[in-house]
Amino acid sequence: MKIEVGTPGHREYLVHVPPALGKQRFRAGRPARPLPVVLALHGGADNMTGFEKKSGFDALADDHGFLAVYPDGFAFTWNAGDCCAPARLAHIDDVGFLRRLIDHLTAIGLADPKRVYVTGFSNGGGMAYRFACEAAGKVAAIGVVSAALAMSCHPGRPVPVMIWHGTADHNVPFNGGGHRDFNDRRPFPPVSRAVDFWRRADRLPALRTAEDGGCRSTGRGDGGAEVVLCVVKGGGHQWPSDASGRLWDFFAAHYRM
Asked: What pLDDT is recorded for position 27?
């Protein structure tokens, strides 16, 4: 599908609609109960169709009754702040694109504005961070896989965050390193920077020591936000096989107040 974003040309996205939508009652052409929506952002050098296949969100959407939406980046990339070309060099307004897409899906009655979730892999994960930093009022929670928080961030409200990262990721190293872009030799910050930032922003304690399948949580704060870190020991720069299901469980437990 296509959407106009106020600039020359248009942007594209895929929508997977679960069977649950067809079982609902409709009023004036709109479902009586708008659905949760997961915006899934592909990594660099990938696109919406590739990530639809890799992430496995379609099957989860059918089982749990949410919209799985796959926006397409600009020239296979997202402008995630300090990464990545060519979207970054072209100053593409990807925050504006995702805002318009969310507004469109809610305006036509498909998406519940209190249950909008954004997740992404690598460059798409960085874009999920940027969207939460600049448009926190639009999301109920985010999920980030194999990405770094490599930008200034000033979220307007507490945001629940789930982070997945492999300890053997050589593209975006777990402990920091590598290069942010082909013309930016600064290293990526470590995963701990993102965890600590969101803990402070959400006013949460340190991660608990007890682990659940490699995942540790701060627990919920007064506003319902929490930060979860899932460490994949020996994992590389890839989407873990169990990430999508765990991400949906995390998303389903949070809604925007």
From this structure: 87
